[in-house]
Amino acid sequence: MFDLPLPGRGHSFAVRPGGHEAVHVARRPGRFAVVLDLAYGTVARILETPDGRHFYGHGVFSPDGRLLYATENDFDGERGVIGVYDAARRYRRVGELPSHGIGPHEIALLSDGETLVVANGGIATHPDLPRVMLNLPTMAPSLCFVDRRSGALRRKLTLDPALHRMSIRHLAVGPADAVAVAMQYEGPAHDRIPLVALQRGGGPLRLLQGSRSVLRAMKNYCGSVCFDLGGGTIAVSAPRGNLMTFWDAGTGRHLSSAKVSDGCGVAPSARPGEFLASSGLGGVIVIDARSGTTRPLAVGGLEATRWDNHLVAALVLRRT
Fold this sequence. Notes:
This protein is mostly beta strands. Helix content is 2%, strand content 44%.
C-alpha cells in the first residue's frame, strides 16, 4: 500500500496490461494524468492535455499496453474527443479520435481489442464554469462504439427522446461484450426513472426496472458500475443515496441493496457474487450481492482512508 500526492483531484484509473503501471486521470476539468509505477509505488511521469482540451476522468489501454485512450473535452468546439497517448514514447499524445457525442466520460474496450465503447454524457461544459451544465434543455447522451484505429463510428445507441436528461456516464463490459450502463438523471428530483441499463449484442439499451422504493433511494444518481468476477451480477453505486445496488445480469432483476455511507467506488472481489465498495467516510466494505450482507475488509490502514469516486482492481506483478 502506498500514498502519493496529486496535482489536483483525480477520478479513476486505467491499468496498463502487464501489471506494472496505472494512469490516474484528473477529474473534469483537470488537465493532468499521473502515471504510477505500481511495483514501487512511485510516480513515473505526469501528462497534460494540450490547450483547448481537458480530461474527463477515465481511460483505457489497447490490448498490448502501447496506447492509452482517454476521454477529453474540446470545450470550445463543444464536442467530445478521445486523446491517444503512446506509452512506449513516454506517453506522448499522438492523436485524437471523435467520441461522436458531447461529454464523454467512461470508456472501455470490447473483447475484439478494436472497438471502444464510450459513455457520452451529453452535457456541454466549459472550464471557465467548471461545474455548470450548459445545455440541459438539449442534452444528447449516447453510447457509442468507435473503431480505435480510424475513429469511425460503428454504432450509436440512444434512449427514448423523452429521456434525454438521462446522462450516460459510467459503463462496464462483461462476458460476451454485454455493456452495463449507469446514469445520472438531470431532470426533476421527484421523477423516478430507471438509472441502470444493459446492452447485449446488436440490441438496444434495455432499462432495468427496479422498484419505486429502490429508485427513490438511489436519488437519481449513479456513481460506478461493474460486473462481478463471474459476470452474472452487476453492482451499481448510488453515493447520494448512500446505497450499493445489485442486479442480475441475465434477467435484469434487482437482487439486493446495501447501505454504504458516501459509497461510490465498487469493484469485483475474488469471489463470484461478491464486491468491494469504498466509502468517502473511510473504509472498504465486502458485500455479498445476493443477500446484501456486508463486512469490513480487514486490511490495516484502509479504515482510516477517505475514498473518492472509483475503485479499480489490479493484479500487480513485482519487477524482477
